[in-house]
Amino acid sequence: MKILEQYILRRVVLMFLTALMPVLAIIWTTQVLQRINLVTDSGQSVGSFMKLATMILPTLVSTVLPFALVIGITQTLTTMNNDSELAVVDAAGASRSTIRRPLILLGIGLTVFSFFMVSYVEPAMRVSVRTMISTAYADLLSSVIEEKTFRKIEDGLYVQITQRQSGRGLKGLLIADSRDPSSQMIYYAREGAVDESGKTLIMQDGEVQRKAPTGDVTVIRFDRYAFDLSELSEQRGQTRYGAKDKSLTELFDPDPMDAEFKRKPGDYRAEYHRRISSALFPIVVTLISLMFCGDARSHREAHLHPMVSALIMALTMFWMHNYATTLAERDASFVLTQYAVPLVAGGASLFYLMADKRPALPSPVSRMVGNAVSAARKRMGPNAGSAA
Q1: Does residue 237 register a pLDDT over 50?
Q2: In a domain, 212, yes or no
Q3: Is residue 315 part of a domain?
Q4: Residue 388 in this model has a pLDDT that exceeds 50
Q5: Distance set, CA 176 to CA 157, 194, 267 (Å)
Q6: How far apart are CA 279 and CA 330, in angstroms?
Q7: Structure confidence by residue, pLDDT tens digits, 252-287
């Protein structure tokens, strides 16, 4: 690779990482905060929460990466154009491939990386996250309930304990169960313990108060009473793996006995083709960015900032691809649309690059942009900075 190509590639990579890290951090933070209840509801340690947050991070990379690449390429080449570096490259007789070649190689490399991430790393991380959450909620009372605090287990079921003893023992139990509209139950017990399976709460030396819809209250004392937790533990600890949790190999040849596959076979089909087609995004957005700012241009031309134009086109492609995926879940004929969206966008960009043409705004829009730019320059004075 030539020195000039290395120089361009280095600047683009630095700008790409500069754009990727903050955006990735913001989206990652919002996703992590949605799962803060792992600590507040299940009594897990901060270390477990940080482990969960770390596993979420790889699932976001492939989504953010194409847009960070657009910002990296357009911002770098626009700055080089403003500094007349692209004009100097043209004047020196260098071919357009000097600018395009390192960026296309970068786009191809990120396409391979994105394919590996969406095909194998992301589903593996999703499975780990789901397993961790289900495990945290499986053993309901022995890990969830805090001392001297009413905790809502589910709608209509509240539990409080006075003290947690060594092992699985509990002291001072109070359970309010109003899940059944025909009766309200309140359980008191001096002592209790959760069995090893986590599916039964054994209460000792207590009483049960039952309130009927008529208002009548019945009190029954007991020496030993078993409160069934199996339904709660299974419901909250059960892990269901959908199409997004499967690797590409499993999506290509799904287990015909898989309950989720039987219920939603279209999801598996659409997800398989989504991963392959979405992996093309990095190379496609590279071509889009080069189409908008891959050559020297005059500062006096009236046009949108190349970054804005490229991001609008990349976002449009992203939204259309997601919409095509949704349609493909219901109708297999839309699978071709999943591939057509990135291929058409990439093909159109490649055509403009090969023909050395620039996409132009419609005349009315171009005049509006030109008038707005001229008016802004007049207000800012003759020494105002020029538009990119």
Answers
A1: no
A2: yes
A3: no
A4: no
A5: 6, 17, 41
A6: 22
A7: 888 888 878 888 888 999 999 999 999 999 999 999
pLDDT greater at residue 298 or residue 179: 179
**Between 279 and 236, whose confidence is greater?**
279
For the whole prediction, is pTM greater than 0.85? Answer: no
Q: Is 161 exposed, middle or buried (0-12, 13-18, 19+ CB in 10 A)?
A: buried
Classify residue 202: in a domain, yes or no. Answer: yes
In the block, residue with structure tokens 């006075």: 162
Task: Return the biggest CA–CA distance within the chain.
Answer: 97
Nearest Cα neighbor of 8 from 92, 64, 61, 75 is: 75
Residue 271, in any domain of the structure: no
User: How far is Cα 270 from Cα 339, in angstroms, rounded to an integer?
Assistant: 11
| Structural domain of 218 | 144-236
What pLDDT, on a 0 to 100 scale, did the predictor assign at position 385? 43
Residue 29 has pLDDT above 80, yes or no: yes
Q: How many CB atoms lie within 10 A of CB 231?
A: 10
Residue-wise over 362-387: b if at least 16 C-beta within 10 A, else e?
A: eeeeeeebeeebeeebeeeeeeeeeb
Residue 297 token pair = 């241009």
Tokens of 245: 């949790």
User: What is the pLDDT at residue 177?
Assistant: 85
Q: Give yes or no for a contact between 78 and 84, defined as CB atoms under 8 angstroms apart.
A: no
Q: List C-alpha distances in Å: 104 to 101, 108, 289, 350, 374.
A: 5, 6, 10, 11, 35
288 pLDDT exceeds 90?
yes
